[in-house]
Amino acid sequence: MIVANMHEAKSRLSKIVIAAEEGEEVFICRNGKPVVRLVPVPASPPLRNLSPDPRLRPLLMPGYEPTEPLSEDEWPAALQ
Known about the structure:
By secondary structure, this protein is an alpha+beta fold. 19% of the residues lie in helices and 19% in strands. The protein has a domain at 2-38: 3-Layer(aba) Sandwich (YefM-like fold), CATH 3.40.1620.10. It has helices spanning 6-11, 13-21; strands at 2-5, 26-30, 33-38. A 3-stranded mixed beta sheet has the order 1-2-3. The protein is rod-shaped, with a radius of gyration of 31 Å. 2% of the residues are buried.
């Protein structure tokens, strides 16, 4: 267990943080009384693979260009 006053903590911050990361209990005191306990942040879970699933790729008819407007005969009958 490490107990350090404010001035000592400021002077040795790097070493105190390393000790806390390694599992050591670290307390920082003000006027001889512990006011802060230093603990490491838990590791975040790994990122998931967010690449698109190739099975979900839309299948387009040959010759269909999605950026061109539809002609009258290409519109579905329900929408004409």
